[in-house]
Amino acid sequence: MIAQEGLAAMLALSPVVPVLTIDDAGHAVPLARALLAGGIGVVEVTLRTEAALGAIAAMVAEVPAMLVGAGTVLTADQYRAVEMAGAKFVVSPGSSAGVLDAAARSKIPFLPGAATPTEVLALLELGYRLQKFFPAEPAGGISMLKAIGAPIAEVRFCPTGGIGLGNAPDYLALANVMCVGGSWLTPAEAMRAGDWQRIAVLAAEAAELNLRRRPRN
């Protein structure tokens, strides 16, 4: 049995899911609070740094209003580690037998990545109707999602990779896109400077994208 129960509702909390790379676990709580103040209620903390697991645990413990997911989960061991840290959902840039097995054994919802129709169909065959489209822009972007959506309409995506405030509305207008992932809400220089107000402003801009959605096929 796959683990996606409740995932659609989680990802519907914000039109943009910030993809966070946190070098200092001490930034986790003020960062989560800044994003929440701007209207973003869900984040993906990537396992690209040693601080990631501590950051997830801190956000879960101290900012309960923020829904915290874990991204860049590449192994079954990492899947179990983020579950122990308190992550509410798991994201991977692709899928592997080990990660899919860990997901099947877990109660934590899993968003696997796909970039081609073959990968999308393979995941759909396992029951995954919600998938990450990655890397979005290099993999064909909006044109590819339209092409996939025509014959495989039952799958909905969270495109990530090369998406910013400028092109996010075009992705969100697609019928098979539920949200987008992006890192532009948390510029590295703002993180280093602890400029949480700037991040709150960027989050507010992103949160307003829901108001500008114009679904199309």
Key words describing this protein structure:
217 residues; alpha/beta; TIM Barrel; 6-stranded parallel beta sheet; 3-stranded parallel beta sheet; 9 strands; 40% helix; 15% strand; globular
Care to describe what's here?
The chain is α/β, with parallel strands linked by helices and 217 residues long. The chain has a single domain, classed as Alpha-Beta Barrel (TIM Barrel), CATH 3.20.20.70. The protein is 40% helix and 15% strand. The strands form 2 sheets. A 6-stranded parallel beta sheet has the order 5-4-3-2-1-9. A 3-stranded parallel beta sheet has the order 6-7-8. Helix 4 links the parallel strand 3 (67-71) and strand 4. Helix 2 crosses helix 10 and helix 4 packs parallel to helix 5 (97-105). It starts with 6 loop residues before the first helix and ends in a 10-residue tail after the last helix. The mean pLDDT is 95.
Summarize the structure.
This protein is α/β, with parallel strands linked by helices and 217 residues long. Helix content is 40%, strand content 15%.
What is the count of β-strands? 9
Largest sheet: 6 strands, parallel
Q: What would you call the shape?
A: globular
Q: What count of helical segments does DSSP give?
A: 10
Distance between the termini: 31 Å
Provide the succession of SSEs.
HEHEHEHEHEEHEHEHEHH
Mean pLDDT: 95
CATH-defined architecture: Alpha-Beta Barrel
Class of secondary structure makeup: alpha/beta
What share of the residues does DSSP label as strand, in percent? 15-25%
How much helical structure, as a percent, in the residues? 25-40%
CATH top level class name? Alpha Beta
| Whole-angstrom Rg | 16 Å
Quaternary structure type: single chain
Number of domains: 1
CATH superfamily descriptor: Aldolase class I
Uncertain regions spanning at least 5 consecutive residues: none
CATH topology: TIM Barrel
Strand order of the largest sheet: 5-4-3-2-1-9
